[in-house]
Write a structure and sequence with these properties.
heterodimer, A: 280 residues, mainly alpha, 11 helices, B: 253 residues, alpha/beta, Rossmann fold, 2 domains, 6-stranded mixed β-sheet, globular
């Protein structure tokens, strides 16, 4: 091995650097990762497609056999696609975070100038990128197979999307904090926590279907307002801005609680030395 | 005025307790600028916890740690861009190529001329031919050199190294030590080096801190430690301390 002289090194221009650049660095890191692995890319599209096709055929069958569903065209496929925004949004956030745990890189990040807030923003942006890669092709398949055009929801779709993403980020942030604090033993939460919300947020049925005592719980969850709003739009042809504003208010509180929880769990991880014991 | 500059690293009565386990038990030391200090001790002596606390990765139970005048971890963002580290507890992402990793970490550390810096470090650490290979496909020795390149990407004033040559063959390990030696000399960087390799410590360090069960058992220059313990190698000194056999030198006694 040849010997070289360190003094030949030019001093790198070095500063505290900008927040935007550190966020861009993290997004670049995840983009490199996605690009380097076709199974990761395939996984983004695979489940949304399978789910949409399954529920699409079910809807097609009952639409031809029941009067109510014939009127409520698209509620199942719409629910599937919106549920996927919620579920894939959280999963996209959590998987990008888990990549750092799997690769034992979290220590590098926590000891770098990257701030927790910047890390969270990078994960949020990447969840949108991952969701777009997975969900956008599926929405076109829904048009091709079942004639359901999600984009036909217009402005309502923007309101639905924004509210669902806020919820998915809030939960993703909190789960990431739990994993930081408790290590990979908490990894399963990232994959399963959203299914806890599935029956309660009334994805496929109205809130009135739930027992009366459970309905306040459902109304405490922002996605419930989105799914009710979607049914109002598709069945009654009425956009309900009141539902979206209520969802937004609860989401704001949920997001703040998620960030607060993450910071507290991070502090607890520093206190317990958990950041030194990450990995598979 | 140089006299007013704070020490690059100052540890003051640091205590770290994990539940009931006392990992670090009231240690204090300060490092002078531009020096290489070895942190020795057996497994569980508290070296890694000490380094992790200095980096702000672990909150102290009590006591105070300052780096370049900033209290850790409270004020860490003031100085993290001037520090870096290498540790077996963390890895450089395996799926990214070496070049991609250098770019990401260069951006995180606020390095402006990342391309030139990467090329220069690659030349210095013999990584030029490996730059476009995924880090995970490199040999253990090559990965260690990549981790070292990551640790030097921001030209740190304070460098913390935890077993930097643990997985290297003797030739590569010697070469890495030579590189570190030159880096510290030319950059006037302050280095805290945790190692079990006594040859490495003798070669690189002008001061040695020996820890045992979370406490500092001894702290001096290698020459003075050898004289005090009446030994010819640091390995023998280390064994004396580890086994509690005390000071052998009559003069010292």
């Amino acid at each position: 091995m040849t010997d070289r002289v360190a003094s030949a090194l030019p001093s790198p221009a070095r500063s505290e650097g900008s927040s935007t650049r550190r966020i861009a660095a993290m997004m670049l890191r995840y983009w490199y990762l996605l690009r380097s692995s076709w199974p990761r890319l395939l996984d983004l599209v695979y489940w949304p497609t399978v789910q949409m096709v399954t529920w699409g055929f079910l809807q097609y069958y009952i639409a031809n056999n029941a009067g109510f569903f014939a009127r409520a065209g698209g509620t199942f496929i719409g629910a599937v696609l919106l549920w996927d925004i919620l579920f894939r949004g959280q999963l996209g956030f959590s998987i990008s975070f888990l990549e750092e745990m799997w690769s034992r890189n979290i220590g590098n990040l926590m000891m770098s100038p990257l701030r927790p807030g910047e890390f969270i923003i990078a994960l949020m942006v990447m969840s949108v990128v991952r969701l777009s890669i997975g969900a956008v092709p599926v929405t076109f398949l829904a048009i091709a197979f079942f004639g359901f055009n999600l984009y036909g929801l217009g402005f309502a779709l923007v309101a639905f999307f924004f509210n669902l993403m806020l919820t998915s980020w809030a939960i993703g942030i909190f789960v990431s904090g739990l994993i930081l604090r408790n290590g990979m033993g908490a990894e399963n939460l990232a994959w399963s926590i959203m299914f806890l919300f599935m029956p309660l947020t009334c994805v496929y049925y109205p809130v009135t279907t739930l027992p009366v005592w459970l309905q306040p719980v459902a109304w405490a969850l922002p996605p419930t307002y989105v799914f009710e709003g979607m049914r109002a739009l598709l069945v009654d042809k009425a956009f309900r801005p009141d539902l979206m504003l209520d969802a937004l208010a609860i989401n704001a509180a949920l997001f703040a609680a998620g960030v607060f929880g993450f910071l507290k769990l991070l502090e607890s991880a520093r206190r317990h030395g958990s950041l030194m014991q990450t990995g598979e | 005025m140089p006299g007013l500059q704070p020490p690059p690293i100052e540890v003051d009565r640091l205590v770290k307790i994990y539940k009931t386990v006392v990992a670090v038990d009231g240690i204090s030391f300060a490092l002078k600028p531009g020096t290489v200090t070895g942190l020795l001790g057996g497994n569980g002596a508290g070296k890694t916890t000490t380094i992790a606390t200095i980096m702000g990765l672990v909150l102290p139970t009590s006591g105070r740690v300052t780096v370049l005048g900033a209290e850790m971890p409270k004020e860490r963002y003031r100085v993290l861009h001037r520090m870096n580290f290498e540790s077996p507890y963390v890895e450089v992402p395996m799926r990214l190529t070496v070049r991609q990793n250098m770019k990401v970490f260069g951006m995180l550390y606020g390095v402006d001329n990342i391309r030139e810096r990467t090329a220069e470090l690659a030349r210095q650490l013999d990584l030029t031919d490996l730059l476009d290979r995924p880090t995970g496909r490199l040999s253990a020795g090559q990965k260690t050199r990549v981790a070292l390149a990551k640790a030097l990407i921001n030209d740190p004033d304070v460098l913390l190294l935890d077993e930097p040559t643990a997985s290297l063959d003797p030739d590569t390990a010697d070469w890495v030590r030579g590189h570190l030696e030159r880096y510290c000399r030319d950059r006037h960087a302050t280095v805290l080096l945790a190692s079990h390799n006594m040859n490495e410590v003798e070669r690189l360090c002008e001061r040695v801190i020996i820890m045992k069960r979370g406490r500092i058992e001894d702290d001096d220059t290698p020459a003075k430690l050898l004289a005090r313990y009446g030994r010819t190698t640091l390995e023998e000194v280390f064994l004396d301390v580890a086994r509690g056999e005390g000071i052998h030198s009559e003069a010292a006694q």
